[in-house]
Amino acid sequence: MHGGFWERFRSRIEPYAGWEMLCMRAALAWVVFANLPASLPYASMPHPNGIGRWMDLTFLSHPGVAPALRMAAIPCLAAFASGIGSAPALGFLFAAEVAIGSLLNSHGAIGHYSQLLTLILGALFAGACAGQAEGWRTRRRVTVWDSIATQRRMIHWARVLIAGAYLATGITKLEVSRGRWFWDAPNIAVQIAKTQNTITATTGAPADPFYAEQIPRLIVEHPNLSRIFFSPGLWLELIVFVGLIGRGWSAIVGLAVIVLHEMISRLMGLNFKEHEAAMAILYVNLPYWLVLAAGAAVCVSHKAITRSCPQRAWFFYDADCGICTRSVIWLEQRLREAGADVELIGYQEPGASERFPPIDWTHVTDGVQWLGADGTVRRDARAVAAVLRMLPRWWWLGVLMDLPGVAAISQMEYRLVAANRLRISRLLGLNACAIRRRDETRAPTGVVTSRADASGPAADPTIPGHPQDNA
Asked: How far is the C-alpha of 457 from the C-alpha of 355, rounded, in Å?
């Protein structure tokens, strides 16, 4: 059991939808572009760091180099965001971020602000290369577009790298403090006071007494309380990988990490905006939750609308039309799934004209018709809108088609298709439209056409006998 859980946890790749990953890539592209410096005023490297130990990176500080990098990054970021040629684009972006970060950290102090973003670009680059390698191995060709599987792998690897980075940070704290980090947590009061004094000396602005005096004093006077308050931050870093289990855990962990960084920013003056942005994009995934909430609202609205729809209705169509017949087969399946009491009847069904006096039988070759339980008759696009209102996933389209202005456009489009249905049916390989003699017609196979005896109107008392409102 435990082996199965850990195997599922290790190999799980969240099946993000294409639009979700498009939002993620576009947001990450914007964060990367905003993180690229407009200039790098460093003419020397007194303490070489990273790849600066093997090569001179001061050329990046030459006039015009940084702006040129930003301009070159634009098409690369556009390629990554669109999923076209991600591998070479991400390779350039990753190399640029590594070089810039190495130059910035080659002056004594080590900054961690952009390291996570650089690592994410590396993970995305590796995922894109793995996708291309798999395509070459299986199909012997390299594709320009990133497949959905490749995109999911890229996002998954970036999420795993984030979890690994925070886990490494937490373990490092425990290692450096020799396991005494929780017990030594009250010492953070000294760091808070020093940070506030440094900010005052740097900016000249007076320190906030609440952060510079009251909080450090509170920590010193109540050490156990400070241990309880600050220890969750380390625990959170150690369990960020829990966010890889599913969307819910991912959102909870992402929000918790963002709150942690905001607290650190206020207390220590250390801003990790890139970290917060990465967690918001790859872990919280706000667009998904907004769509989910909108979907819930849509379901509530649909229930309210369907309650206002007729309890029973009849939909009439030309059974000799290829487009109509194929559409009715599609419609009948979804009406059955929705439990809607809508009867689909071909104009050619024997006895239909006697059973349904409200229907305009001179309209049979022109378009579909809808008959409500109250006697309301709708034709053409308005009939289509009425039946769409009965479908859980398509009700919104029916409402849209009834809006002023949209209804006129929908009717024009309907008449255009109806006038060319013979040609369209032949192009689609469907039965061509042709009205046959009444005694030779029959309803299309597989379509529910009648649930009542066709002997006459008296067979079904729910059928309205006279039109009340022709709409």
From this structure: 5
